[in-house]
């Protein structure tokens, strides 16, 4: 346990909030995925394979990709790393993703985002075959989440739902305020919560009277990308607070110390949502490998 995590646990013990920690739950998910990967390889000779694509040399993105590759290895999932220069064009990136989509030895594809400014990120995402979209970033995956059809979930929103379920947070009828409108985080989080019978209000950094809206929420999902943006004074006493933000210095989008004085449950940063994101990515890679192997039989 890091000094920072220990300090935050001490804060939580001294206040009303209980921590929603994703570490152990994520580890159990990865362990189950590893067992399934082992069975698949022993029975069919197929090892699940996740291809990661990184454009440019952003240190944070490179570190995150390495972490995913290391977790893949521990789960018995093969990895293929593609690193493209920062000056890569949309057409070049689309061609690389199309090639991976057509490669039968690759079961899941992860395009690390954000990509350089000259690239049309949506066009790049859409080059990923739906059956290999284990990060849940394509329009096909979003539609599946919105309509409740089979498909891959966006990994962070999907991880959030699993975390809420694990902590027995009642979703049916709960008023949930999602702060953020990213197509791979805020928007799909709202869709998944709506599918769980929550009442969802979408907000963002430019929403008028945002604090008043947040104060009405039973559940708050912060995904706005601004450090310490959500203050404790914004929260209804006893609210459940999910901090999906990650900013420089291990700081989330929620002012943790203030939120811990008001909330009933709150996720720490790090150690809350983050581990769930990677665990779901690996789980869905095994799902994809099983489905593709069965389809070829």
UniProtKB/TrEMBL annotation:
Domain Tetrahydrofolate dehydrogenase/cyclohydrolase catalytic: 22-135
The protein's Enzyme Commission number: 1.5.1.5, 3.5.4.9
PROSITE patterns from the UniProt entry: THF_DHG_CYH_2
Any one GO biological process: purine nucleotide biosynthetic process
Superkingdom per UniProt: Bacteria
A Gene Ontology cellular-component term: cytosol
Pfam families noted in UniProt: THF_DHG_CYH, THF_DHG_CYH_C
Amino-acid positions noted as binding NADP(+) in the UniProt annotation, renumbered to this chain: 180-182
Keywords: Amino-acid biosynthesis, Histidine biosynthesis, Hydrolase, Methionine biosynthesis, Multifunctional enzyme, NADP, One-carbon metabolism, Oxidoreductase, Purine biosynthesis
Record pathway: One-carbon metabolism; tetrahydrofolate interconversion
Domain Tetrahydrofolate dehydrogenase/cyclohydrolase NAD(P)-binding, chain residue ranges per copy: 154-292
Gene Ontology MF: a single term: methylenetetrahydrofolate dehydrogenase (NADP+) activity
Reactions this protein catalyses: (6R)-5,10-methylene-5,6,7,8-tetrahydrofolate + NADP(+) = (6R)-5,10-methenyltetrahydrofolate + NADPH; (6R)-5,10-methenyltetrahydrofolate + H2O = (6R)-10-formyltetrahydrofolate + H(+)
UniProt similarity note: Belongs to the tetrahydrofolate dehydrogenase/cyclohydrolase family.
Subunit structure: Homodimer.
Function: Catalyzes the oxidation of 5,10-methylenetetrahydrofolate to 5,10-methenyltetrahydrofolate and then the hydrolysis of 5,10-methenyltetrahydrofolate to 10-formyltetrahydrofolate.
PANTHER family cross-referenced by the UniProt entry: C-1-TETRAHYDROFOLATE SYNTHASE, CYTOPLASMIC, C-1-TETRAHYDROFOLATE SYNTHASE, CYTOPLASMIC-RELATED
Protein name from the UniProt record: Bifunctional protein FolD
Lineage: Bacteria, Bacillati, Actinomycetota, Actinomycetes, Propionibacteriales
